[in-house]
Write a structure and sequence with these properties.
The complex is a heterotrimer of chains A (280), B (241) and C (234).
Chain A: H1 3-17, E1 28-33, E2 36-37, E3 41-43, E4 49-50, H2 52-64, E5 67-72, H3 78-84, E6 89-90, H4 98-101, E7 105-106, E8 115-120, E9 134-136, H5 145-153, E10 158-162, H6 166-175, E11 180-184, H7 187-196, E12 201-205, H8 206-215, E13 220-228, E14 239-240, H9 245-260, H10 263-272
Parallel strand pairs in A: 1-5, 1-6, 9-13, 10-11, 10-12
Antiparallel strand pairs in A: 2-3, 3-4, 6-14, 7-14, 8-12, 8-13
Helix pairs in contact in A: 2-9, 2-10
Chain B: H1 2-7, H2 15-48, H3 52-67, H4 70-91, H5 102-127, H6 131-139, H7 144-174, H8 186-197, H9 200-229
Chain C: H1 3-14, H2 17-43, H3 47-62, H4 65-77, H5 80-83, H6 88-91, H7 94-119, H8 123-131, H9 136-166, H10 178-189, H11 192-221
Helix pairs in contact in C: 1-10, 1-11, 2-3, 2-7, 3-7, 4-7, 7-9, 9-11, 10-11
The chains are: A alpha/beta (280), B mainly alpha (241), C mainly alpha (234).
Chain lengths: 280, 241, 234
């Protein structure tokens, strides 16, 4: 056999083993969420998923021309599982933060919501300083007088947070040395303990709490100011592996169009009774 | 009654999901036991071989997987397993991601744990075989392989049934821990139902009852299997005039 | 191998060991006491008590510990009448709920193990004791308990190791023991393998210590079985 033919056929044979570096043609994708974070996402009695995010996902996938499969999984395992390849997208009120950007990639935000403390209506901690007000914070900001006032009020109390959230980090950073912190696998477990008086306070997404208050028979209420700003990052966006830039771009386009024509706003009003679209 | 509706099969009823979850629990436990049987047989063979290095290896395996909490092992395999499988895939030229689905991760984890216990069961069963039988087989010139197939295996299986019954019960209860991987087995489904409806007491009791049904049925099955396997063995009642 | 990270992880995890040990010792202690009560009901002779004991053992050995723990933690807290009772200051604490459910579970298994130990006591010894007029309590103290305990020890030491491993489940009801702290470290640093490997080593060391202690106990209780020193023979 001629040498060049041998070379060519070997190259051909070897190319079969070569890593396909070309962009993957995204026809299908698996999206994960908790199915336990109403009204963002929840699991209905028949096992189907409902809420703001499943409906938004349907819209986004149509526009990105991708066939999406939604699966429920545990919150605290999502980021490692995403990187390990179990799913392709995380859509679970995932805040875009610098810490997370080190491990995964994000699309542009499709929502930006504040966070606040909640407590029992008849608790002595109800109506703590700043209740009803809104304050803006940046990452790592200290010396905010409203937060310092809360630190005084919450000394020695128990605060419940969902593990691995940006809210957990905030509570550990600011209240870790003066209060007892309890971590829960799901927001609902923490809410239950808050209702039962096992913990004095909870800290979480304000929109999530507003919905949870209804399920709690109105025994819970916000306390202290609502906190917005870049401390929660740019907002909530889809989590995607850093390498999948093409998938991210497809979803970015879809999110942009859904924001532009008010689809996000409509879904937001339907599920949250407020408009959570990010104000750029 | 609203309670009965919740666990029933209507539109608000979680009954169907709970039954499906029970089947998944059975499936994952059975898979785990199968994986464990292979591992257990290998490890007990290593321990019985007499070679110091193999015996040490076997002891390390049983010590580690009977000494570390099952929860940790499940976490390790679920979170660490996917990266391990992906690196193996990369080494073989596959550039994509190879995920380890919850079912497989759970079955593997509980399987590895049950393998440690099954190794002890098989080892005990082998040591309980009458030395006379093994000697007799060698004396008539039976090949090692034939002796293994016709004498050792049947006897080991017969003597291992009580121990395997225990390991099955253990694995059935360990399978509840697979819920942390998100697999929709019985524990997890009870949790999800409880959280959705805020009826924690009801759904955990129902889940508990379903597990009790599984364990008592398994008990009957293994007792029946034991009786059948020992049907031609002499009993204490024999020999009485 | 990032030794700095491993060292840091180990220090953080070791701080949670006292909690694990507290969970373990309290549940073994209370579980053991409860098991003695249950086994007394089981072998006592009273058919009603025996049936109750059998039922207890069936329920707690037949269902997973996790579901029992969730029942105590979430299930009991659901009821208003419990929340407003004198029990609430105790059941309010996750630690108490964890110890309670661990104790209830081990009581079921331990009762069966103790029952096996009691059955191993030769009826001849009991007959002999009664024939010389030993009363019930004295019989239990001098004959039944020592022999039963020695027979039950191997199986009970396995059960104790299982208890140590079961304390890991308390992390799922917000108790900050070793596994719970390990989980928090993972969610903060995303370094799964290293953190869990450190945690696994801690449990292996703890279990090793327990097994050695039990072996020592077994050894000291079986003095009469060991070879007679040559000087005492003949």
């Amino acid at each position: 056999m001629k040498f060049s033919a041998l070379l060519l056929s070997s190259a051909f044979a070897l190319s079969a083993f070569a890593a396909p570096v070309a962009a993957k043609d995204w026809k299908t994708a698996t999206i994960t969420l908790e199915g336990a974070y109403a009204p963002w996402n929840m699991t209905n009695a028949d096992g189907t998923l409902g809420g703001f995010e499943p409906e938004l996902a349907k819209v986004l996938c149509e526009r990105a021309k991708i066939e999406c499969k939604l699966v429920a999984s545990d919150w605290d395992g999502m980021i490692p599982a995403l990187n390990a390849g179990k799913f392709d997208v995380i859509m679970d009120a995932l805040s875009i933060t610098e810490d997370r950007k080190k491990v995964i990639g994000f699309t542009i935000p499709y929502a930006a919501t504040p966070a606040a403390f909640a407590t029992a209506k008849d608790s002595p901690l109800a109506n703590a300083a700043g209740t009803g007000a809104t304050i803006k914070m940046t990452p790592g900001q200290t010396g905010v007088k409203e937060v310092d006032a809360l630190k005084e009020a919450f000394k020695g109390k128990t605060i419940g947070i969902q593990a691995a959230t940006v809210y957990a980090k905030f509570v550990y950073d600011n209240f870790g040395d003066i209060a007892e912190i309890r971590e829960y696998k799901t927001g609902a477990d923490r809410d239950l303990d808050l209702q039962n008086g096992r913990i004095d306070l909870g800290f979480d997404d304000a929109v999530y709490f507003a919905n949870a208050f209804q399920s709690a028979n109105d025994t819970l209420a916000f306390t202290g100011p609502e906190i917005v700003g870049s401390i929660w990052g740019e907002g909530e966006g889809l989590g995607i592996r850093q390498a999948d830039t093409d998938l991210r771009d497809k979803f970015n386009e879809a999110i942009k169009s859904a924001l532009a024509d008010g689809t996000v706003k409509n879904l937001s009003m339907k599920w949250f009774k407020v408009d959570v679209s990010p104000q750029n | 009654m609203a309670t009965l509706e919740l666990i029933g099969f209507g539109s608000t009823g979680w009954g169907a999901l709970l039954l499906l979850a029970t089947l998944i629990t059975l499936a994952v436990t059975a898979s785990a036991l199968a994986i464990g049987a292979v591992l257990g047989a290998t490890i007990s063979a290593a321990k019985l071989s007499g070679k110091a290095s193999l015996v040490a290896l076997g002891n390390v395996y049983t010590t580690v997987f009977r000494g570390v909490p099952e929860l940790l092992i499940i976490y390790l395999i679920y979170f660490g397993g996917s990266s391990a499988v992906t690196s193996i895939g990369k080494a073989m030229g596959y550039e994509g991601f190879l995920g380890l689905p919850s079912f497989l991760a759970g079955a593997l984890a509980v399987g590895i744990i049950s393998g440690a216990y099954q190794a002890e069961v098989f080892r005990g069963a082998y040591l309980a075989i009458s030395k006379g039988e093994l000697e007799a087989a060698s004396a008539i010139g039976m090949h090692r392989g034939v002796r293994f197939r016709r004498i050792i295996i049947p006897q080991v299986l017969r003597l291992a049934i009580p121990g395997l019954g225990n390991v099955w019960q253990l694995s059935l209860k360990d399978s509840a821990l697979i819920s942390v991987t998100g697999l929709a087995e019985l524990m997890r489904t009870s949790q999800v139902a409880a959280g959705s409806t805020r009826q924690y007491f009801l759904f955990f009791i129902v889940g508990g009852i379903l597990y009790l049904i599984l364990t008592s049925l398994s008990d009957r099955v293994f007792n029946g299997a034991e009786r059948r396997a020992n049907r031609s063995m002499p009993t204490a009642a024999m020999g009485k005039a | 191998m990032d030794f700095a990270f491993l060292a840091q992880t180990m220090t953080t995890l070791l701080k949670a060991v006292p909690m694990t040990l507290a969970l373990f010792s309290l549940s073994v202690f209370f579980g053991g006491l409860l098991a003695l009560l249950i086994v007394w009901m089981r072998v006592g002779g009273n058919p009603v008590l025996s049936a109750i004991a059998k039922g207890y053992i069936f329920v707690f050995r037949g269902s997973p510990l996790l579901i029992q723990m969730f029942l105590v933690f979430y299930g009991l807290g659901q009821f208003g009448f419990i929340r407003y009772s004198f029990l609430w200051p105790f059941l309010r604490e996750p630690f108490v709920c964890a110890v309670l459910s661990l104790a209830l579970c081990t009581a079921g298994y331990s009762a069966e193990i103790f029952r096996g130990g009691i059955r191993a006591v030769s009826p001849r010894e009991i007959e002999a004791a009664r024939s010389i007029g030993m009363s019930g309590a004295l019989l239990v103290r001098r004959i039944l308990a020592p022999i039963a305990f020695r027979h039950a020890l191997p199986a009970y030491s396995t059960e104790i190791v299982l208890m140590m491993k079961s304390t890991a489940l308390a992390s799922l009801v917000t108790v900050w023991e070793v596994t719970g702290v390990a989980q928090r470290l993972i969610s903060q640093t995303y370094r799964t393998m290293e953190v869990f490997l450190c945690a696994a080593i801690i449990y292996l060391v703890l279990n090793f210590i327990i097994l050695q202690a039990m072996s020592l106990l077994e050894y000291s209780l079986s003095r009469h079985r060991r070879a007679i020193p040559p000087a005492l023979k003949a």
